[in-house]
């Protein structure tokens, strides 16, 4: 696809709305993570993949000469997703804050250098009419962003359709950002099929997440009502815990196929303890010889 030669006003306005949404979309999620000190239900891999996708996304947008808002959008998206991923490390995996912060800053510096380097690397070829490098980068951005949604179905199966750990304000703003960005592409002189498809898929996936949670609310309405009458939350009531435990944890089933093996050091200590037990019994009873002659 050739780069845009002129940008209609409507495309700029719609793109600005979409960019504003995607610049602040993760703020409610980041605040929720900080307030609750928990990222349970929020896949760290999703945040990392989304952050990574910002690099090829930005390269493609600049190369295609999208309107300015759509060029700024992936940069903000990349940073906010990286911050949320760092929170997953701190709250979910109990990393030290300074360690996660150092990793976050290092990652963002690498992303910035990689994006700038690739833009200057492919620009001469693209100006000569060689389009496949830009198309390849666009495909990488598309695949990486959509791959970030892959953990979501597993989380929904585990919780029987319940959305946990993901802020619905974030989902709403994110959906609006994808929708208005899609409309901005429609308003351009030439529609970008690759990114148009990506924005459309984002809208569909996020609507399906909301629909899944609404179905969960309908199915558990009786349990939640009885829990409320007992002055308990759904997660505190025995009936709710029992109902929720029937979810399918595919990740746990997969891990059972690969039992944890002991490290050489653990095996050495285990063998040493076994040998010590054989050589020095824990309880030794003395034997007496009756009628012994001294």
UniProtKB/TrEMBL annotation:
Gene3D superfamilies listed in its UniProt record: 1.20.1280.290
InterPro entries, sorted: LAAT-1, PQ-loop_rpt
Compartments it resides in: Membrane
Its membrane topology: Multi-pass membrane protein
TM spans (from-to): 6-24, 44-62, 68-90, 102-126, 132-152, 164-187, 193-218
Keywords in alphabetical order: Membrane, Transmembrane, Transmembrane helix
Protein name (database record): PQ loop repeat protein
């Amino acid at each position: 696809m050739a780069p845009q030669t002129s940008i209609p006003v409507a495309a700029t306005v719609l793109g600005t709305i979409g960019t504003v949404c995607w610049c602040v979309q993760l703020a409610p999620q980041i605040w929720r993570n900080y307030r609750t000190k928990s990222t349970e239900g929020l896949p760290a891999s999703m945040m990392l993949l989304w952050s990574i996708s910002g690099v090829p996304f930005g390269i493609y947008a600049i190369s295609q000469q999208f309107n300015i808002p759509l060029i700024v959008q992936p940069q903000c998206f990349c940073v906010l997703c990286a911050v949320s991923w760092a929170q997953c490390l701190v709250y979910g995996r109990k990393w030290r804050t300074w360690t996660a912060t150092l990793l976050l800053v290092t990652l963002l510096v690498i992303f910035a250098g990689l994006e700038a380097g690739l833009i200057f690397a492919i620009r001469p070829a693209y100006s000569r009419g060689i389009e496949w490098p830009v198309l390849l980068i666009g495909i990488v951005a598309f695949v990486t962003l959509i791959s970030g949604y892959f953990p979501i179905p597993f989380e929904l199966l585990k919780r029987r359709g319940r959305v946990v750990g993901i802020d619905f304000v974030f989902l709403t703003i994110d959906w609006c950002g994808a929708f208005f960005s899609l409309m901005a592409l429609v308003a351009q002189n030439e529609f970008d099929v690759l990114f148009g498809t990506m924005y459309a898929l984002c809208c569909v996936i996020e609507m399906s997440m909301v629909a899944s949670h609404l179905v969960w609310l309908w199915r558990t309405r009786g349990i939640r009502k009885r829990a409320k009458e007992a002055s308990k939350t759904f997660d505190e009531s025995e009936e709710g815990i029992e109902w929720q435990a029937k979810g399918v944890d595919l990740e746990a089933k997969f891990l059972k196929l690969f039992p944890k093996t002991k490290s050489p050091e653990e095996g050495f200590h285990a063998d040493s303890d076994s040998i010590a037990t054989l050589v020095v019994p824990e309880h030794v009873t003395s034997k007496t010889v009756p009628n012994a002659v001294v």
